[in-house]
Task: structure prediction
Amino acid sequence: MDWKQELDAIYRETDHIEDERRAKRLAEQAVVQHFIEAVALPAFRELSGALEQHGRTATVYAGDDPRIEIFYNGEEEIVYRASAVIEAQGFERVDLPSNAQGFRPDPPSAYKLELVTQEEMIGRFLKGYRAYFADKAATGE
Result:
């Protein structure tokens, strides 16, 4: 094989690898989008109605940062996020910014995003919300 054929072969191999990576990214984005639309947002909407029955104002946000923001008497109580992060290895998990409450599987490495249910999202919210009130009571706020 001459050097031009070898160069062509290198580019064919590289293109094939890039095509596979692109297809994997698209598949992962579809999983994330499904999670946001079918799990996170419906869970947040369900919570919103229940929270409002307890005198809270709850706003659900969609997009790249799905979250529910909860206010009581005009002051923010808690922002609960479910930011889907797809790691380089293709492992799907739910992760959070460091300053927010949110869904974090126990242990994080044991969960695939496709397996998270609305009930789990709500259960994790309740766990975080309870912790918020415990912290508030402990600090005397």
